[in-house]
Design a protein that fits this description.
It holds the Pfam family Porin_O_P. The protein has 562 residues and is α+β, with helices and mostly antiparallel strands. Helix 1 crosses helix 3.
Length: 562
C-alpha cells in the first residue's frame, strides 16, 4: 500500500496533535495558525474515518469464510469498480470482485457445465419458500459481488440483493410461456354451433414476475401474472402470501397461495411433461385450491414422506367478478405421500390427496357450481366437457390415490380422483340427488439425453430432466430431451337432468404425445399433439356439442424461467 506526501504530512501532523496537544497549542496564538490547527483537526477526523473504513474492509477480506483478494485483483481492477472516499483520490480502495464463496470446498464450475444431476435441473421460480439456513447455503455456492455490506448475485439465475449475513434479501424471478398452435378436424356436425377452435392462434399462457422479500426466516411473495389460461391480455395475481420457514423442513403459509394436493400440481408449471395438467386434476384442484386461493396452513417434508394441510377460502378477485356474492367459500386440502423405495436407479412414489369445499360461494342465484374444462390445450377453445350448472350445492369433495415409479430414464405415473357433490334438500319439491364423478390419467416419460427426471423430496413430486452441458453443437452438447405420452379420462355424467331438464354431464378422453427440449437450465421448448373425444352434452354453451365432438390439436410452447 502506498501513500502520497500529503497523506504522510497529514498523518504526522495528526499524530503530533494527539501526542503533544499542549505544546502545539502553546506554540502560538496567531489567528492564521489557529485556522491551520482547525483545518488539521478536520483532516484528522477525515483520516480516522478512512482508517476505520480500511480496517473494516481488511477484516472482511481476511475473514476465514471469505476469499482474500489478491494483489493482482486489486491492481488490475477496472477503474469504474473502485470505491473512493472524499480526500482519498490517490488511494485505491479495495475493489468489489466476483468471488466463489468457500472456494476451497466448492471449486468453481464453468457456467455452461458440466453439472451434476442435482445441480442440472431446470431453474424454477416456484417452490417451497427457502429457510434462512437453506438460503444462505444456496447463495454461498453462487457467484456474488460484495459492495460494502451488500451482496449482489444470481442464485439459480434469480437476481438477488442481500445483506452480508443474508438476513435481508430481495429477489426477482420470471416465468414466461408463449403458446402457438391450432386445431384440426374439430368442425361441428350438422345442427351444432361451431364453437371456438382456431386453426392457428397464440396465447401468453403464463407471464409471471416473482417478487420475494426476506427477513431471516420470514418470506413474503407477491407474483403478478400477465398471462391467461385461455385468452391473454388480462393482468391477474398468482400469489401474495407470507411464509415462516424457521421450523425444520416446514413451511407455514398465510395469504393468497396455490395449495397442492396432486402430484401433477406439485411438479410446478415449469416442470410439466405436457402443456397443461390432465382435466381431472384441474377440476379437483380448483374445488378448494387453485391459483390465488386464500390459504392458511403448511407442509412438512422428510426424505421419504411429505404431509400438507390447508384451510382455504375464496379466490382473489371472486367478489370483483361477481358483486352479488353474500357468503364466501370455505374449504380444506390435505395431502399425505411417501417414498417407500429409493435407490440410485429407482424411485417409488405413493400417496393420497383430499379436498373439500364445505360451502361454495353464495350469490344472488344461490349456491351453484359448474364443472367445465378445456381439452388440455390452452388456446382459448370452447370447453366440451361439463357437468351442467349444478344448483343448490351443499358441499363438494374429492379424494384419490397417486402413484409413480422411476426406473433409470423411464418414468410412469398416474392419479385417480372421485368427486362427490351433495345437494341441499328442498321442502315440498323433488329432492335433488347427490352426484358422483370420476377421472384419472396415466403418463409415461423417457429421457432421451441429459440427466433423467428425478424425485424432489421437498415437493414430493418428480422434476425435470437435467442439463449437464448447455446447448453447444460445436462441442457435441445438446442439452436435454424427453418424450412423453398420456391418456386421461374425465367422466362428469352421473344422473339424467343433473344440470337441469334435458342437461346431462358428459365424458372426455384425451390422448397426448410430445417432446420437450431443454437447451439450458432456463429455456424449454415443447411440442404436443392431442387427440380429444367428447361425448354429447346440452350443457355446453352455444349448442356446440349436441352430438359429440372430436378433433386434434398441435401446439408448441416457448418457456423461459429465472
Amino acid at each position: 500500500m502506498s501513500f502520497s506526501l500529503r497523506q504522510v504530512v497529514l498523518t504526522a501532523s495528526t499524530a503530533m496533535t494527539i501526542v503533544f496537544p499542549c505544546e502545539v497549542h502553546a506554540a502560538t496564538q496567531d489567528p492564521e495558525v489557529a485556522a491551520l490547527r482547525k483545518e488539521l483537526a478536520a483532516m484528522r477526523r477525515e483520516m480516522q474515518g478512512e482508517i476505520q473504513h480500511l480496517q473494516m474492509r481488511i477484516a472482511h477480506y481476511e475473514h476465514p469464510g471469505n476469499q482474500t483478494p489478491s494483489h493482482t485483483q486489486l491492481a488490475g481492477a477496472p477503474a469504474r469498480h473502485r470505491l473512493h472516499s472524499p480526500g482519498s483520490a490517490d488511494v485505491p480502495e479495495v475493489t468489489p470482485v466476483f468471488a466463489q464463496q468457500e472456494a476451497a470446498r466448492h471449486p468453481p464450475r464453468l457456467p455452461d457445465g458440466p453439472r451434476s444431476a442435482a445441480d442440472s435441473r431446470l431453474a424454477s421460480s416456484e417452490g417451497p419458500a427457502q429457510s434462512w439456513a437453506d438460503f444462505k447455503a444456496a447463495t454461498s455456492k453462487d457467484e456474488t459481488m460484495q459492495i460494502g455490506g451488500i451482496q449482489v448475485g444470481f442464485p439459480k439465475g434469480r437476481p438477488t440483493i442481500a445483506s452480508e449475513d443474508k438476513a435481508y434479501a430481495f429477489s426477482i424471478g420470471l416465468t414466461a410461456q408463449e403458446d402457438i398452435g391450432g386445431f384440426l378436424g374439430a368442425g361441428p356436425k350438422a345442427g351444432e354451433g361451431s364453437g371456438n377452435f382456431n386453426k392457428l392462434t397464440e396465447n401468453a399462457r403464463r407471464l409471471r414476475i416473482y417478487l420475494t422479500w426476506r427477513y431471516k426466516d420470514w418470506v413474503a411473495n407477491v407474483t403478478p401474472d400477465f398471462g391467461s389460461s385461455s385468452v391473454d391480455g388480462t393482468a391477474g395475481l398468482f400469489e401474495a402470501n407470507l411464509n415462516y420457514t424457521g421450523l425444520r423442513h416446514t413451511t407455514l403459509t398465510a395469504g393468497y397461495f396455490q395449495p397442492r394436493m396432486e402430484e401433477e400440481s406439485a411438479e410446478r408449471a415449469n416442470a410439466f411433461e405436457f402443456l397443461e395438467r390432465p382435466t381431472i386434476i384441474d377440476l379437483v384442484r380448483n374445488l378448494a385450491g387453485g391459483v390465488a386461493r386464500f390459504s392458511v396452513g403448511g407442509e412438512h417434508y422428510e426424505k421419504r414422506w411429505l404431509a400438507a394441510a390447508y384451510f382455504t377460502g375464496q379466490k382473489f378477485g371472486d367478489r370483483s367478478k361477481d358483486t352479488t356474492i353474500t357468503d364466501s367459500q370455505t374449504g380444506a386440502i390435505v395431502r399425505l405421500v411417501g417414498r417407500p423405495y429409493m435407490t440410485k436407479d429407482i424411485d417409488v412414489h405413493v400417496g393420497a390427496g383430499a379436498t373439500a369445499a364445505f360451502k361454495v360461494n353464495e350469490n344472488s342465484s344461490g349456491r351453484n357450481y359448474t364443472f367445465s374444462d378445456n381439452m388440455e390445450v390452452p388456446l382459448g377453445e370452447t370447453a366440451l366437457v361439463t357437468s351442467g350448472a349444478l344448483t343448490n350445492v351443499a358441499q363438494i369433495w374429492a379424494a384419490g390415490p397417486q402413484f409413480g415409479v422411476r426406473w433409470k430414464r423411464f418414468l410412469l405415473k398416474g392419479e385417480y380422483y372421485h368427486i362427490g357433490v351433495q345437494r341441499n334438500q328442498q321442502s315440498m319439491v323433488t329432492n335433488l340427488p347427490s352426484l358422483g364423478f370420476d377421472g384419472w390419467y396415466v403418463a409415461a416419460n423417457y429421457t432421451l439425453f441429459g440427466h433423467p427426471r428425478a424425485y424432489n423430496e421437498k415437493t414430493a413430486a418428480f422434476t425435470t430432466p437435467g442439463v449437464e452441458y448447455d446447448f453447444d453443437p460445436l462441442h457435441n452438447h445438446w442439452g436435454a430431451l424427453e418424450v412423453s405420452g398420456r391418456w386421461s379420462v374425465t367422466d362428469l355424467n352421473d344422473l339424467p337432468n343433473q344440470g337441469g331438464k334435458g342437461i346431462n354431464g358428459n365424458q372426455q378422453t384425451v390422448w397426448q404425445g410430445g417432446f420437450n427440449w431443454y437447451p439450458t437450465q432456463h429455456i424449454k421448448f415443447m411440442l404436443d399433439y392431442a387427440r380429444f373425444i367428447a361425448s354429447r352434452s346440452k350443457g355446453v354453451s352455444g349448442n356446440v356439442n349436441l352430438f359429440g365432438r372430436d378433433g386434434n390439436a398441435i401446439v408448441g410452447r416457448i418457456q423461459a424461467t429465472f
